[in-house]
Amino acid sequence: MGTSLPLPIIDLSSPEKISTAQLIRQACLEHGFFYVENHGIEEELIKGVFKESKGFFDLPLEKKMALLRRDLLGYTPLYAEKLDPSVTSIGSFSDSKESFYFGSFEGVLAQRYPNQWPSQDLLPSWRQTMECYYKNVLSVGRKLLGLIALALDLDEDFFEKVGALNDPAAVVRLLRYPGEVISSDVETYGASAHSDYGMVTLLLTDGVPGLQVCRDKSKQPHIWEDVPGIKGAFIVNIGDLMERWTNGMFRSTLHRVMPVGKERYSVVFFLDPNPDCNVKCLESCCSGTCPPRFPPILAGDYLKERFRLTYATSSSS
């Protein structure tokens, strides 16, 4: 692994909202990544999520394949994705990871896109643990978005007022990276280089390294820096739709996961807007000399196209 990137640590329990928002603003301008601690989710619940996640990925393949991804939700086997389509030029391997997505269990989106759950006979505590975690992490995400709104000199409830948090397309993704290097001739990726698609991502890891970020995606060759986990803290990063809202001011930073020869587990929460939310440049982020760089787009249309490309490129591998 390379040089570690010293990221700012945001205390979510601080009563000083404006100063906390300013710290977030600086982090989003400089890195697009930061840590969040004192978020209020109990350590026992986090341990339970990792335990239940490992229990699922330890199941026989046929049990997992019975819950194969449908409308994104469910199981995705090894090598089913390629987050960076350009890696076809250096080899044919897709990303070395398996995952399980689940989303909201209330509201219109939950009815339209029902979750798939492992059998209670196989994993008795699984659904209860995951639903509890979902409610808690969604609450943290909403609080964080309020601070991000303040960081943009907006009302704290801005994202609620524009409909982004009206039945948001929020999902949890459980991930297992086997960790082995497949071939000495071809570079292997746990997750190839990509930016996240939505508003904001909250990541928990098991402490095994592998996450790297590239702060300047326009420079070649890319310079990658390690982002180590901090026990109990979220690693937070800005997604593409937030970058579009801010006209590129807040960075949706390129990142990847590299295998380190050891199995790695992570839990990712993607807080994405309601699909009908119109994402257009904020007035405070554009001017006559700095016009909008991106046209307005419905969040659902943008996300659908990004997922189509992710899974289409992997199918040929």
Radius of gyration, CA atoms, in whole angstroms: 19 Å
Please, what is the average pLDDT? 91
Largest sheet, in brief, is: 8 strands, mixed
Count of alpha/pi helices: 8
Keywords: Iron, Metal-binding, Oxidoreductase
Domain Fe2OG dioxygenase: 168-273
Family: Belongs to the iron/ascorbate-dependent oxidoreductase family.
Pfam family, one: DIOX_N
How would you describe the overall organization of this protein?
By secondary structure, this protein is α+β, with helices and mostly antiparallel strands. The protein has eight helices and 14 strands. The chain has helices at residues 17-30, 43-57, 61-65, 108-112, 126-151, 158-161, 240-245, 299-314, and strands at residues 9-11, 33-37, 74-76, 98-103, 169-177, 191-194, 200-205, 211-214, 225-226, 234-238, 254-257, 264-272, 278-279, 297-298. It has an eight-stranded mixed beta sheet. A four-stranded antiparallel beta sheet has the order 6-11-8-9, with no helix packed on it. Helix 1 crosses helix 5 (126-151) and helix 2 packs across helix 5. It starts with 8 loop residues before the first strand and ends with a helix. Residues 313-317 have low confidence and may be disordered. Belongs to the iron/ascorbate-dependent oxidoreductase family. This is 2-oxoglutarate-Fe(II) type oxidoreductase isoform X1. Residues 168-273 form the Fe2OG dioxygenase domain. InterPro entries: DIOX_N, IPNS-like_FE2OG_OXY, IPNS-like_sf, Oxoglu/Fe-dep_dioxygenase_dom. It comes from Camelina sativa (False flax).
